[in-house]
User: Which sequence fits this backbone?
């Protein structure tokens, strides 16, 4: 709770203003029945028209004050709650930017989306109710009961019985529903995951005619959520009957006993009239308080989930005195062991001892799950090693400022991502200050100029969200050009030419030799033709180094490399090359 409320920041003044105005509004409303009693007793029954006018004018003034306080309190509550929600979204988003991949894997993308949307909306609504209704209801309850005691101490005992009854019923309901709402938000994550997966892969769904299967899967997730909400709302439905029982009990008791007191002369008609008003105010405040408890019950689960993100400690952080300059592109792995879940005993990489000179071109090849992507993720410190050390430019990557390291170690990942905007906008992710000429030169090196020149708007062509209006090969070449604009000391291509033909792949590799000769280049590929011209080739198998040598020597000595070579070259060659 404290973690969430810290995000109120500049909106604290609005919150306190709302609380103050709400308190004043309640005071005015509580005094109105008291003035009404004087109108009846001192004005109407005494046939004193002047008293009616005086007390009537006072009631009008009090009503306007109450109305003004209510209006301004509502405005302040809206500003405070909306401001809290905005600050929470910004804080969570900023926190996520500091997370490593392992932190994001812990929460899952749908889970983070739910926290930034549904959970924050729940907290926003609950906070508005707290500073409005949760202030108003207790004050109304206390003041109304105080006035009841002042008017008739004996009759006020009836209200006390009703209050105890309502608190017992509402409290029992809240204990059960709180557990249900905790489960509800976990189901929200499942629902969001189903939607995200389906929409992002809608082309695959349609290609395999799996719409009915996806509909059934979504219906199942939605049905689980429906059943939990019905269960919770079914329990909350008992609030109204319990409220009505208490109201009718109080009305009947006060009517019966109040009539006797009036006949006996111990109570006036005006007192009984105001007492009825206070009864309704008291019981309605209890009802509103139960609604607040429901909202708070729902929001407590959301608050806990939001706090989990805000208090999550990023696995990766900069050292106290980080190094900001990378000397060269040399890379050393010193007996590295790495697992995605530390301490699980399931290593993605085991005892990797590898030394790469600056400016070398290194090919990396191996079967699926052999650890190729895991290896390069450690170079730019997307993850930290379990044991051993990874050095770039002669220094442990953990000694660098992460931003400085990643600016000098440029990675084109397997999953290429483009953002909505023009081609130039996307290219300048690599270097915001790059000139048009530098962007064009990078595209020529990546062989992207071939298709850009054919587009109607050239480099100003707009890329749709996710790069949906360009092909896989075009997307890969744009991502390579974007990486080249960083002018890195280490360039890593993680199977990032898989969607381009072999001839274009060869052109790109030839351009690298001319444009970035001093840059260390690590090329992960599935096909031999992409790596055979590298200075040395690393063969990975089961997360371990199987061999590290030149293409010629590997053909003579390494069984895995020989098998891959024979299956690709002697088996018919690449898809766009003759055997």
Assistant:
């Amino acid at each position: 709770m404290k973690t969430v409320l810290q995000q109120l920041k500049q909106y604290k003044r609005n919150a306190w203003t709302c609380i103050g105005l709400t308190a004043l509004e309640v005071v005015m409303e509580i005094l109105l029945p008291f003035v009404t009693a004087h109108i009846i007793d001192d004005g109407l029954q005494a046939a004193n028209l002047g008293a009616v006018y005086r007390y009537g004018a006072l009631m009008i003034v009090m009503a306007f004050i109450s109305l003004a306080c209510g209006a301004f309190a509502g405005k302040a509550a809206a500003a405070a709650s909306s401001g809290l929600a905005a600050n929470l979204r910004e804080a969570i988003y900023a926190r996520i930017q500091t997370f490593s991949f392992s932190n994001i894997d812990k929460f899952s993308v749908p889970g983070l989306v739910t926290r930034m949307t549904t959970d924050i909306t729940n907290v926003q609504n609950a906070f508005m109710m707290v500073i409005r209704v949760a202030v108003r209801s207790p004050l109304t309850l206390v003041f109304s009961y105080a006035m009841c005691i002042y008017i008739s101490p004996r009759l006020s005992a009836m209200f006390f019985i009703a209050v105890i009854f309502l608190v017992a019923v509402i409290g029992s309901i809240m204990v059960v529903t709180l557990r249900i709402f905790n489960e509800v938000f976990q189901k929200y994550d499942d629902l969001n995951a189903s939607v995200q997966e389906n929409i992002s892969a809608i082309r695959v769904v349609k290609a395999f005619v799996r719409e009915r299967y996806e509909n059934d899967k979504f219906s199942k997730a939605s049905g689980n959520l429906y059943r939990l909400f019905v269960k919770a709302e079914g329990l909350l439905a008992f609030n109204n009957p319990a409220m009505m029982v208490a109201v009718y009990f109080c009305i009947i008791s006060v009517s019966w006993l109040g009539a006797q007191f009036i006949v006996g002369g111990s109570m006036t008609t005006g007192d009984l009239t105001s007492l009825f008003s206070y009864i309704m105010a008291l019981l309605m405040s209890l009802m509103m308080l139960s609604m607040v408890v429901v909202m708070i019950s729902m929001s407590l689960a959301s608050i806990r989930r939001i706090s989990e993100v805000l208090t999550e400690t990023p696995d990766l952080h900069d050292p106290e005195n980080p190094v900001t300059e990378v000397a060269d592109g040399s890379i050393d792995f010193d007996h590295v062991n790495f697992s995605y879940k530390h301490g699980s005993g399931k290593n993605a990489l085991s005892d990797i001892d590898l030394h790469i000179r600056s400016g070398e071109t290194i090919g990396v090849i191996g079967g699926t799950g052999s650890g190729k992507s895991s290896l390069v993720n450690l170079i730019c410190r997307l993850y930290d090693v379990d044991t051993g050390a990874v050095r770039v430019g002669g220094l442990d990557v953990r000694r660098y400022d992460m931003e400085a390291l990643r600016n000098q170690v440029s990675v084109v990942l397997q999953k290429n991502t483009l953002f909505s905007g023009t081609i130039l906008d996307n290219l300048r992710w690599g270097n915001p200050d790059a000139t048009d000429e530098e962007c064009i030169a990078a595209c020529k090196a990546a062989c992207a100029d071939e298709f850009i020149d054919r587009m109607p708007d050239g480099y100003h062509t707009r890329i749709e969200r996710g790069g949906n209006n360009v092909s896989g090969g075009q997307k890969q070449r744009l991502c390579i050009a974007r990486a080249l604009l960083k002018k890195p000391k280490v360039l890593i291509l993680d199977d990032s030419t898989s969607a381009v033909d072999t001839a274009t792949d060869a052109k790109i590799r030839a351009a690298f030799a001319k444009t970035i000769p001093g840059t260390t280049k690590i090329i992960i590929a599935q096909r031999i033709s992409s790596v055979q011209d590298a200075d040395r080739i690393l063969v990975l198998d089961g997360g371990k180094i199987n061999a590290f040598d030149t293409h010629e020597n590997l053909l003579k000595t390494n069984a895995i490399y020989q098998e891959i070579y024979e299956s690709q070259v002697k088996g018919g060659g690449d898809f766009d090359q003759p055997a």
User: Anything to note?
Assistant: The CA atoms of residues 141 and 305 lie 33 Å apart.
